[in-house]
Every structure is written in C-alpha cells, then in structure tokens.
Amino acid sequence: MEKYERVYDEFWKDIVEENGKVNLDQIKRELADYRQLLNDVPKVYEEVCGLSKANTRPDYVINYLNDHYIVKEYALDDLKDFVEDGYISWEDIKEYLT
C-alpha cells in the first residue's frame, strides 16, 4: 500500500466518507482548511525564522527557535545572578532594554 493510501485510510476516510461514499462537500471543506494552512504557515515561518515553505520540517523550526530566541524565565534568572555577583546593575539592564 502506498503511503498516501495509508494516510487516507487512517486519517481522511472517516472524515470525508459517509456510509462508504465520498462526501464531495466535506472534501471541499477540508481542502479549503488545508489551503488556509498553506497560506498561513509560511507567513509564520517567515516571521519567526526567515523560511517560507509550509512543508519545512517542524524540528528545523523548533531548533531555530531554541537557538535564536531567549527564554525570558531563564534570562531573568541569569540576570539576577549577574546583578547579585556585581557584574552588572539593574540600571544598566533597564537602560539596555529601553
């Protein structure tokens, strides 16, 4: 069995068939939803990590985010430690961030 056939049987069949017959209206609805994803996902990928392909592997996007964005909770803990150890002052931090 081809992969697409397996995907259909395991996922789509119960969604787009009624009593063993294909429901064309439901297929149109599902395709409209899918088209919306094809339009929206690349916009998010482009904004977040400079990519524009909807079929980009999710692990790439997640790794990019982990490598390029600051987790505020961890950053705050680190900054508190730096202040307590005298490496930087809160005033310096505020000035940098504003």
Describe the structure.
- This protein has 98 residues and is mostly helical.
- It has two domains: 56 residues, no CATH class; 31 residues, no CATH class.
- Helices cover 73% and strands 4% of the residues.
- The protein contains five helices and two strands.
- A two-stranded antiparallel ribbon has the order 1-2.
- Strand 1 and strand 2 form a beta hairpin.
- The termini are far apart.
- The model has no long low-confidence stretch (mean pLDDT 90).
What keyword list fits this structure?
98 residues; mainly alpha; 5 helices; 73% helix
What integer value in Å does the Rg equal? 24 Å
Unreliable segments (pLDDT under 50, ≥5 consecutive)? none
Query: What is the first-to-last residue Cα distance?
Result: 59 Å
Shape: elongated
Biggest sheet, spatial arrangement of strands: 1-2
Mean pLDDT across the residues is 90
Counting structural domains, the number is 2
Q: How large is the count of helical segments?
A: 5
Question: How helical, in percent, are the residues?
Answer: over 70%
